[in-house]
Amino acid sequence: MADHIKIRKADGTWVVRAGGAVLAETNNALELTEGAMAPVIFFPRTDIAMAFLEPSPETSHSPYLGNAQYFSIETKSRSLPNAAWTYEDPAEGMDRIKDHIAFYTSNADIAVERL
Q1: Start and end of every DUF427 domain (predicted)?
Q2: Tens-digit pLDDT profile for residues 25-45
Q3: How far apart are the first and last CA of the chain?
Q4: Which of 3, 10, 26, 73 is deepest in the core (most CB within 10 A)?
Q5: Nearest to 23 by CA among 57, 49, 55
Q6: SS3 113
Q7: Residue 113's CB: how many other CB atoms inside 10 A?
Q8: Model pTM above 0.85
């Protein structure tokens, strides 16, 4: 495991909203911090309305986290390409984020919030 990456249970209830819909709500979110980067909240797949997510052909690789697969969010009015990602087979030591999905908060159409 990379020493500069920390994964912990995120306190409280977390939600993801996009296109006027709640895509996820959980008390079991994980917070991943990687060095000086902003923390990322990962939601368990079981707490996500997966009908809103469409698998994307986009992939990327992190030497510390593994290979990421992306999803586009399909809202009632539009598609938000590559707006979420997951590590289906995370790198060694990153097992906690398996079966979790994170959402890009840099997109103004997506909100990840603690209630």
Answers
A1: 15-105
A2: 999 999 999 989 999 999 999
A3: 31
A4: 73
A5: 49
A6: strand
A7: 12
A8: yes
